[in-house]
Amino acid sequence: MRKIGFPLIALNFKTYAQAFGENAVKLAKIAEEVSREYGVAVMVAPPVVDLARVVREVEIPVFSQHVDPYKPGSHTGSVLAEDVKAAGAVGSLVNHSEKRLKLADIGAVLERLRENGLMSLLCTDTVETTKAGAALGPDMIAIEPPELIGTGIPVSKAKPEVVSGAVEAVKKINAEVHVLCGAGISTGEDVAKAIELGAEGVLLASAYVKAKDPKKVLSEMAETALRR
Ligand code: G3P
Predict the structure, then answer these.
(1) Domain map of the chain by residue range?
(2) What does the pLDDT read at residue 177?
């Protein structure tokens, strides 16, 4: 797997009004500043249209939010692994709960990413789907109970057994896979709890993208991530 650090704070910009176009660059630059100040690995996943624009402005890892399971050809409107690579991104989220794929397509997307030397962060929703996902050999898995997404109720506190269960399950299936968790992660303590449960990082969106002071929120997370 290409170089990426752990513990990792992965920031999914989704398609929030605060997170596309020049705003995607602003949020990515803040993420890079915090990564450098605290020495914590931070990755950003801007909207696909903004990938190249963001890659040009930061050196921290940039991921696509999605890739389709196709090779180059007549697939109007799809997102190709080749194009994500050409934009300078180093990986992609796969099967996010807001961009679900069929199981067969997940395997195909992971293969397309591997063929293009891109990292994969596979999103799952339960310990059972995490087990199935781990068997497909992604670089990373983020378990995210959909009902907590966007609520500000952190999975690491509301459903700790989901995080620890996913970590234990993946270790038994494929110890190479790094397990993160996401959904409602909002404070440094949420990050610390996730790491205490065995996760190697977190995947979050609204607490950072919609924050009045994104740098303050991310700095607090970075500080606690290092403490554990
Ligand atoms: O991809 C991360 C995202 O689904 C979690 O959303 O807003 O609860 O951090 P949020």
Answers:
(1) 8-227
(2) 98
In order of 52, 73, 93, 128, 209, the CA distances from 46 in angstroms are 10, 24, 11, 29, 10
In this structure, CATH architecture of domain 8-227: Alpha-Beta Barrel (3.20)
**Catalytic site includes residue 98:** no
| Whether residue 144 has its Cβ less than 6 Å from ligand 1 | yes
User: Please, which pLDDT band fits residue 2 given cuts at 50, 70 and 90?
Assistant: low
50 phi-psi bin (left φ>0, alpha ψ -120 to 50, beta other)? alpha
Is 96 part of the annotated catalytic residue set? yes
Amino acid identity for residue 209 in this structure: V
| Active-site hit among 57, 66, 96, 168 | 96
C-beta 185 within 6 A of ligand 1: yes
